[in-house]
Design goal:
single chain, 170 residues, alpha+beta, five-stranded antiparallel sheet, 10 strands
Length: 170
């Protein structure tokens, strides 16, 4: 059963990569959106040279009942280029909220995009979640969360970096 789910996940990832890859070229935007890789990687910013900075909700003022996304800047201080599928439908950035937020999964879009390449020493601002996931504020108060960015190294290894952040829901 696990092997079947793994194959199914790989097939879905392949299709989504193609979808995300063809879309990015046709939809330039101020954010790079892309599809996450499912991985058990434990790569961290300190060892990989990839880091998340300026992580926050958008809009910056989140009110109970409102839907929002998370914005973060990916900094590639590794010596190599990193890649992630990028387009308006999918995102490599996901957040886990410890309270006050409901994460819902709905049917998303299926556009394709080329892989986004982030060269060494460069940064890009990304938004998440991708199409098919909704973050909705449920209660007022200070909210702790972790953002995780999934990417692939030049040699094909899947990795991620996680950063905690706190924001207030009014």
């Amino acid at each position: 059963m696990h092997s079947c789910k793994l194959r199914e996940g790989i097939a879905i990832l392949s299709v989504l990569s193609i979808v995300v890859a063809s879309t990015i070229l046709s939809f330039p935007d101020r954010y790079a959106y892309s599809q996450p890789f499912n991985t058990n990687s434990t790569a961290k910013a300190a060892s990989s040279g990839v880091d998340l900075i300026n992580t926050h909700p958008s809009p910056s003022t989140v009110t109970t009942g409102n839907k929002f996304e998370v914005i973060s800047t990916v900094v590639n201080n590794s010596p190599n280029t990193i890649m992630f599928p990028a387009g308006p439908c999918d995102s490599p950035l996901f957040a886990h909220f410890y309270r006050n937020v409901l994460t819902r999964h709905v049917q998303g879009c299926t556009a394709t995009s080329a892989p986004f390449k982030l060269n060494s020493g460069k940064e890009v601002t990304i938004a998440g979640p991708g199409s098919g996931t909704i973050y909705q504020a449920t209660n007022a108060g200070q909210t702790r969360a972790t953002a995780t960015f999934y990417y692939q190294t030049e040699n094909g290894q899947v990795a991620n970096v996680t950063k905690s952040f706190v924001f207030t829901i009014s």
